[in-house]
Amino acid sequence: MPASNQPTAARPPDGIASAAHVLGDRWTMLIIRECFYGIRRFGDMVRNLGIARKVLAARLKELVELGLLERRRYRRDPDWYEYVLTPAGRDLYGAILALLHWADVHRPAFGERVRLHHMPCDHDTHAVVVCAVCRQELDPREVEARLPHPTTTE
After folding, report:
1. Beta strands of the chain (E only): which ranges?
2. Residue 7 pLDDT greater than 70, yes or no
3. Less CB within 10 Å around the terminal CB: N or C of the chain?
4. What is d(CA 135, CA 128) in angstroms, rounded to the nearest whole number?
5. Any idea what DSSP says for residue 114?
6. Which residues contact 117 (CB under 8 A, 6 or more apart)?
């Protein structure tokens, strides 16, 4: 059989697969969004999201276990907790803003547009993905993904 027709093994998991595993659920993305909007308390999340309490409790527990949120007690007797983004959770900010910009451009009728106001320059803005070295905007036609070579099966 010619080399180009040899079956290959499935692509091994990479960062996108890992992120999809963590964030690939609608509720997870919306919970993270609420945290970026400054919402920390269970009851506020239930109200804002219209999510079932059991579903929210399960997602919050998972996000704490994954290290994206920290559960902090803010009241005793009875104990009440709030959920705060960890450094790993805050590192999702750029990805969340990129998704928001994509939705504004490609799904504008879907919902109310959120304005992002950059306080240091006092202008409204949107996410732009730039090269970490030269700071030029990244164009997918100018970026090459250098993947490990797939393994072949016999």
Report:
1. 69-75, 80-85, 116-118, 123-125
2. no
3. C
4. 10
5. P
6. 123, 124, 125
